[in-house]
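Handout, section B. The chain below has 281 residues.
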Amino acid sequence: MPKDAVVRWKGPNFCAVQAEPAPGLRNELKDMPAQATATAPSNREGAGLRSGVLIEARDLRKSYKAGASAINVLSGVNLRIEAGELIAVIGASGAGKSTLLHLLAALDMPTSGTVYFEQKAIESFRESELADYRNRSIGFVWQRHHLLADFSAAENVAMPLLMRGAGHSEALKTSARWLREVGLEARATQRAGELSGGEQQRVAIARALVQEPALLLADEPTGDLDERNAIAVFELMQRLHREHRLTSILATHNTVLAERADRVLRLEHGLLLPVGDRPKP
């Protein structure tokens, strides 16, 4: 990345960079040996080593001012997610699914109530701890992929690592490994703007997981895809969840896909209600 690049942090796994991709970075990608994709070191201990409650919300409330009145989006949400669970949150548009995920990711703060991560109240985190939580503990997949169109797939996936100061070679090796995980190793040097919608969302998933976060949050990850690609992306996320022993929360309108989760919760009238528990395999 050029030294004069302007980098602005926008949230977990997403930033805007006002500069052309570094030529040297592109050359490293082209010259990278194939075996590098399987040897990148892990950034933290595996998620599978975690146990117990990973994240919890207690009496979570969120309201927004609208003139002299207030719009209540969340009205006392309680949620406990065990490490290793795959949870689907369903609900109508405007029910507050995105708001809930933003609060869990500390992208926004509740009007009242508390989010606990590994039994620690997020509201007690210092700014540096919040930044570290968003960058390393949370992986976020958005409905829109938010990729940098003029950067390659590998550069997009490597961006969170480069943002935290990782070297180019290390970042690219780890990026290549995750592109292989999502079936796009052959597209590593392709500009993100030239990829199909399904491919772009796969790159976004790789970017969300490149730092091996403790918690994966996905906000309508299949919402902009056709049925075939939506099923393929959901099944990919299911496989990655299982193989990497992730803890995952997916907000979706698609009740058919949601039924494949361990538990399905419905957000309605500001409250989170159980739809049905599904036994783990």
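Note. The longest helix spans residues 227-243. Compare this with the example in section A.
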